[in-house]
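Case 249 in the screening queue. Each case pairs one protein sequence with one candidate compound; here the compound is NDP. For every case the pipeline is the same: read the inputs, emit a complex structure as tokens, and attach any notable structural observations.

Predict complex for case 249.
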Amino acid sequence: MARTILITGATAGFGAAAVRRFLADGWRVVATGRRAGRLQALRDEPGGDRLHVAVFDIRDADAMQAALDAIPAPFRGIDVLVNNAGLALGTAPAQRASLEQWRQMIDTNITALATLTHRLLPVLVERRGAIINISSIAGSYPYPGGNVYGGTKAFVTQFSLGLRSDLHGTGVRVTSIEPGMAETEFTLVRTGGDQAASDALYHGANPMTAEDIAGVIHYVATLPPHLNINRLEIMPVSQSFAGFQVHRE
Ligand code: NDP
Ligand code: 8X3
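Case 249 output:
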């Protein structure tokens, strides 16, 4: 019988690629996001008859609940939750950053992710399912301008490990996927629509693609049921680590 996966942030980037990956593999997919037109367009793609789309702002807990309540019966038995919706806003140092942008990142990357997880835990436990959280290398390695974004992703990683501990014995698997540089709409969103800045960041770097990460999500979701990848950090070959910074008087 086909398995069912709910993927948040399915209108672009990793989420949209993951929807296509799982539809191609015969899964039933629930896809969420704010941009209705993009979600509806996915229904016209191969396997679109196995896609249910749920349009809501993930920060709106009431809209989230209404969308969950409206999921049609064939899609209600969710086996895998992919908490992917998220964003970075701004690259300014903390002392010049926007508090409004900080709050939007916290509301989206932390509060909404925890809320949806809380609401789906009963069905995931019942079905011995899986939770795949999209964290980031930014949660492990600080960089200038990463401040609250990195903090939100550190939450996602640690929350994933905590969930795994709490879900011990239930059969529910939990994985934190922590990608590095991948070309999606991420930098366009972060810079407020600066396509030149986005192009400059990825130029010549051969970054990861949305399809690369969708493949990793699919790999994790289809592992034999006795295996759990706790954390999976993945970067393009072109990206590695730099040292600490030293300020000299
Ligand atoms: P994109 O900007 O391409 O996609 C982000 C998705 O999140 C969109 O579908 C967007 O949908 C959704 N989203 C954002 N805010 C909301 C909201 N308030 N309500 C509902 N949906 C929302 O970025 P990526 O695919 O790159 O990002 C996906 C995840 O991967 C994020 O959590 C990001 O932090 C993480 N990540 C990205 C990396 C990268 O280099 N690209 C590296 C590491 C982690 P819509 O706007 O239609 O609502
Ligand atoms: C996205 C990767 O390094 O731009 O989470 O923060 S990074």
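Case 249 observations:
- The helical segments are 13-24, 36-42, 61-69, 99-126, 147-166, 186-190, 195-202, 210-221.
- Residues 4-234 form a domain with the Rossmann fold fold (CATH 3.40.50.720).
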